[in-house]
Amino acid sequence: MKFIKLLTLILPFxxxxxxxxxxxxxxxxxxxxDAIKDFSVENLPxxxxxxxxxxxxxxxxxxxxxxxxxxxxxxxxASRYDNVLMxxxxxxxxxxxxxxxxxxxxxxxxxxTMVTVNPNKPPFVxxxxxLKIASDWGGGRIEGENPTSSKLMIGILKKNKTTGAWxxxxxxxxxxxxxAFNFRGLSPEETVxxxxxxxxxxxxxxxxxxxxxxxxxxxxxxxxxxxxxxxxIAGDSKASSTTYALRRIFDGARATWADxxxxxxxxxxxxxFTIDMLANYQLSRFKxxxxxxxxxxxxxxxxxxxxxxxxxxxDMSTWTLLGEWDNWRPxxxxxxxxxxxxxxxxxxxxxxxxxxxxxxxxxxxxxxxVETVSTWEPRTQVYYPELEFWGRxxx
Length: 395
What we know:
Oligomer: single chain
Helix content: under 10%
CATH topology of the largest domain: Jelly Rolls
Order of helices and strands: HEEEEEEEHEEEEEEEEEEEEEHEEEE
Number of helices: 3
Shape: elongated
Distance between the termini: 117 Å
Largest sheet: 8 strands, antiparallel
CATH architecture of the largest domain: Sandwich
Strand content: 35-45%
């Protein structure tokens, strides 16, 4: 009975506390922040950085509203603690008006502050003006610099000789500081090509025109069934078994872990094998498909040299170095465990076959000797699941 009486006395007190419990409301509810007065502008390529100070405690963030050249409206926001707000996507070097608002926690906007920015030359214009275009095997080669690492698309066109209309050839995407791309598969006849650059805000540069004839290029007719291709000279590494014989590099089965040439397991490096192309060719490029369970890892070749000769000599002093490639993973990263650590660029390049270009002025040869200086990780074997070569025959 005493407990019940005590509870009867305490309960009204507890209810009173509960009813008077503090309710959380926005600070300065209903108040509008003061307009932004303290700011400065730093003009950048195709953009501007607006620094600001918010002395009004009612302001939670700053909002910028502006319009791009094509009429698209954009907004940018920055917290009061960031102090810098970026506005970008501008297509020209001219004055643009940006409207700034201080905004409270309950989304009350201050009166607008009009700011003028004068962005520098946009990256897509800077890049297209400095592109280098030249004729190459089966098409052309594009090289350029992208110092701001902007996300860009480089578009290649060709002019239809009958209608005069532009036709798409290929598009390349990059955000690297420098880049080089080849477009291929075109006839060796004089053609008018167009090149333009587009940025992530759909701003397009002018189309620049170039006229040239691509170099003639064919895929070499190398076959796993023609045993005459596969010769062995002193110093060549043997295959680990008939299952992984040298002929498997030309059987068309790309990138499988259970196919291709696997050298015998021995610590000796470098490792060589020799191919008779059965005719004299000036080589333009080759593709290498890796073991697809272990891209840029394990016993896949990493540092590769290819030598050429007109006779199958065992004397290396008679061979000409046609090309050398090392550390060609697109991301530049070190080997990772499994394929989980690959970037999109790493994976895409490996899946379609890693491309290697020969210098343009190499001599025609009949025999090639592939030298593996090292693999991606220390191994006693090297893997060549598949190879393909391109060039032109010299008679």
